[in-house]
Amino acid sequence: MERADLARMIDHTLLAPTATPGQIAMFCGEAVQLGVGAVCVSPNRLPLTEHALPGSIAVCTVIGFPSGAHHPNVKAAEAAQAVAEGATEIDVVIDLGLAWSGMWAAVEAEIAAVRAAAPPPVVLKVIIESAAQVDDAAIVAACQAAEAAGADLVKTSTGFHPEGGATLHAVALMARTVDGRLGVKASGGIRDTATALAMVDAGATRLGCSASRAILDGL
User: Fold this and answer.
1) All domains of the chain in start order, with CATH
2) Residue pLDDT tens, the chain, 219 long
3) Does residue 155 carry a catalytic annotation?
């Protein structure tokens, strides 16, 4: 894979709660230098990306992050605010308690609420926290709920859950489930070139990475 092609698949990510305005500025500069497809920052850092990025780089933020244990109305309001402040992509965390209870209609409803608050052309990615799901059937059901609610991509992980991040097995299963109708974002623990390329081979169409430079330099 060519370096530029892999770079365009990367959501260059800085979600540390301690990230300073200066660090965000340096992060955006690095994103431009690397030629990544998107940057992903915390919602309250969105104003810092204004005028710092060319239109070719999408601006992504996270909603209901990292636990997903937020009221659907709060997630929807947070999404609407993010779009108003310049986000062109939204990554929302599902309610894991609902998922563990098999309440998939409720999971779908909360995703749909966020979709309504951030309609197309905003790109909606749904974080299913694949490593924390009870089994493969739950991963499949989470992807199906996301698709039914109007999502554009399903995403493996926040990168903050103690159960871990992306795995090749989960990415492949998610890719088979959505079968090209949605994209698949692998995120969480992708820190080197070999892992990134393996995720792409497994079916990932986007990669969430904080180690973007190391991954690209590895090519």
Assistant:
1) 3-217 (3.20.20.70)
2) 999 999 999 999 999 999 999 999 999 999 999 999 999 999 999 999 999 999 999 999 999 999 999 999 999 999 999 999 999 999 999 999 999 999 999 999 999 999 999 999 999 999 999 999 999 999 999 999 999 999 999 999 999 999 999 999 999 999 999 999 999 999 999 999 999 999 999 999 999 999 999 999 999
3) yes
Please identify which residue in the block is written with the tokens 């997630």: 75
pTM: 0.97
The DSSP output letter for 132 is G
125 labelled catalytic:
no
Closest to 66 (Cα-Cα) out of 158, 188, 191: 158
Task: Please tell me which residue in 75, 95, 152, 155 is annotated as part of the active site.
Answer: 155
**Which one is catalytic: 75, 95, 125, 185?**
185
What letter would DSSP give residue 206? Answer: E
Among the listed residues 11, 91, 95, 152, the single catalytic one is: 91
